[in-house]
Specification:
heterodimer, A: 251 residues, mainly alpha, 10 helices, B: 307 residues, alpha/beta, Rossmann fold, Alpha-Beta Plaits, 2 domains, 4-stranded antiparallel sheet, 11 helices
């Protein structure tokens, strides 16, 4: 397990060395979203009773940054190592594929939670936020970052060049995270778009996470938790099976 | 397991689509050997090394390092193997010492490895570069760090894949002095190189592979003895004329006072050649015999194999 801890530590040091880009920049971006959208849409969008639009927006933005940074950490690190060839130094060690998975996903979780906490702390300067359940908030942030950490590994294994990874990020991660109820409650959408939102797994992450703040959600918390846990289990199994088979890593 | 070879290669086959990269390679490398693995580009050397390191999975056959199967017992096998890859790969995020420390960590090594890292940095002449980012190092220095990474867990078997490609003479000397020291300490060294004089100077036994198959495997002395031809340089008092056709065919170059001819070790004798020249009425002033070196043997054997 020590090898796994060193790989995990290496991943933390890696993103720590470029923390302006990996931690600070996403916090600033989220704050800009918060300032612009809250200014433009406050009072114009129906959300939960007794909850201001700005307060409603904050958990969504936090989870969106958790999602995007969880994905970015594992995917960019792995794809760089793979394309530049230095991944070989990990591949020729006794580190098992399970340890490899744990190290990369754990590092993604740390970065995602750091960015998420940063967005939360910065948002508290502007908004009064209620907290319904800290464990639920933490649980959904944890599951969300783990899901995206694993998905980042899958995308980086699949991508043969940076361009393909960018495509995955821009055509899958970004639309799914933007269209998941970050900026609105899906109850304000027409029936068709509501149904479409319900097949977006990111919607359940955000809805469950938001429940942790307001005790209210678009779908029951048990369903959100169930969908998210199921997504995590499926994705973990898929990623482990790809790593075990040496997909695009060992010929 | 105490007496098993350092490296076992048993009937290993590997194809990449229609390309058969390894065709039934089968040999062992004994503990403590300085073993040369030679072959032209595309011969299968790197595929074999990658298979030993677990980066390539053979289609069939068995590979083991210090008796541990590289597939089923990969953790034990990899702890005992250090590989210096051919390409200058590095992680641009880290400095020299970090690179070595992380690498040691991947092998589960704790603080006890620190003195060895210091020793390695010293031996590789990197002491004043420990805090320099890998990106800022010259090619030769990056190569040294690669060697450090391969040695950081003190593996009993070290594979160096073209370690001196693009390395200047001074560094090459330093590298060989370090590798000789490792060999002296009991490490098994497997070397692939394009510089045949290096293999000739360093290796006890040499395998020549081509098209994924074994062309020759012998001690250096026996391999050199396979050199079929010698070159004879003869200084004469005058231009030799009227030489018998049997000898004239062997002449590579002839001037007013010099004859260069090649002859077969097994069929010709130097004395007979000289007698023939003398019989032609030419006085021999001086002779020099030049034997094939490993490069000639290598070229000859790989050419024969292709034919």
């Amino acid at each position: 397990m020590t090898g796994c801890l060193w790989l995990f530590w290496k991943e933390l040091v890696r993103f720590g060395k470029v923390s302006f880009q990996t931690v600070l920049a996403p916090i600033i971006t989220s704050l800009l979203y918060l300032l612009v959208f809250s200014h433009v849409l406050e009072g114009r969008v129906d959300v939960y009773e007794g909850v201001t639009y700005t307060a409603f927006l904050v958990p969504g933005l936090i989870m969106m940054s958790v999602i995007q940074n969880g994905f970015a950490n594992s995917s960019s690190s792995l794809v760089q190592s793979k394309i530049t060839g230095n991944l070989v130094f990990v591949q020729i060690t006794p580190i098992t594929y399970i340890e490899f998975f744990i190290a990369y996903v754990a590092a993604s979780i740390v970065r995602a939670l750091m960015v998420g906490s940063g967005v939360l702390l910065a948002a508290l300067l502007f908004v009064d936020l209620s907290v319904y359940s800290v464990p639920i908030i933490f649980l959904f942030a944890l599951i969300g970052s783990a899901i995206l950490g694993a998905l980042g590994i899958v995308a980086a294994l699949w991508a043969d060049k940076y361009d393909q990874l960018a495509a995955f990020q821009n055509f899958v991660i970004m639309p799914l995270s933007f269209l998941s109820g970050v900026f609105y409650s899906i109850h304000s959408l027409p029936e068709f778009w509501q149904s479409l939102s319900r097949i977006n797994p990111f919607f359940y992450l955000i809805d469950g996470f938001r429940f942790g703040f307001f005790g209210e959600s678009d779908v029951p918390i048990r369903i959100s938790l169930g969908v998210c846990l199921a997504a995590l289990i499926v994705l973990t199994l898929v990623t482990l099976s790809l790593l075990r088979s040496g997909y695009k890593l060992r010929t | 397991m105490s007496k098993c070879p350092a490296v076992t290669i048993e009937n290993v086959h590997k194809s990449f689509g229609p390309v058969r990269a390894l065709r039934g390679l089968d040999f062992t490398i004994q503990r403590g050997e300085f073993f040369g693995l030679l072959g032209p580009n595309g011969a299968g050397k790197s595929t074999l090394i990658n298979a030993l390191a677990g980066l390539v999975r053979p289609d069939s056959g068995k590979l083991a390092v210090m008796g541990y199967d590289v597939g089923s017992e990969y953790r034990d096998a990899r702890k005992r193997l250090g590989v210096v890859p051919q390409e200058l790969v590095y992680d641009p995020f880290f400095q020299v010492r970090e690179t070595l420390r992380f690498q040691a960590g991947y092998f589960g090594l704790g603080r006890e490895v620190e003195p060895w890292i210091d020793e390695l940095l010293d031996a590789l002449d990197l002491t004043d570069k420990v805090d320099v980012n890998m990106r800022a190092l010259s090619g030769g220095m990056k190569r040294r760090v690669l060697i450090g990474q391969a040695l950081v867990h003190k593996p009993p078997v070290v594979i160096l894949d073209e370690p001196t490609a693009g390395v200047d003479v001074e560094l090459r000397r330093q590298l060989w002095s370090l590798v000789k020291r490792l060999h002296g300490d009991g490490h098994t060294i497997v070397l692939t190189t394009h510089y045949l004089e290096e293999a000739e100077e360093l290796c006890d036994r040499i395998a020549i592979i081509d098209h994924g198959g074994l062309v020759a495997l012998d001690t250096k002395a026996d391999l050199l003895a396979r050199g079929i031809s010698k070159t004879l340089h003869i200084h004469t008092s005058e231009r030799a004329r009227n030489l018998p056709p049997a000898l004239a065919d062997k002449i590579k170059r002839i001037t007013e006072d010099y004859i260069e001819l090649s002859f077969s070790l097994s069929e010709d004798s130097v004395m007979e050649v000289l007698d023939t020249i003398r019989d032609a009425g030419v006085h021999v002033i001086d002779i020099r015999v030049e034997e094939d070196d490993l490069e000639d043997v290598f070229v000859q054997l790989t050419r024969d194999a292709r034919q």
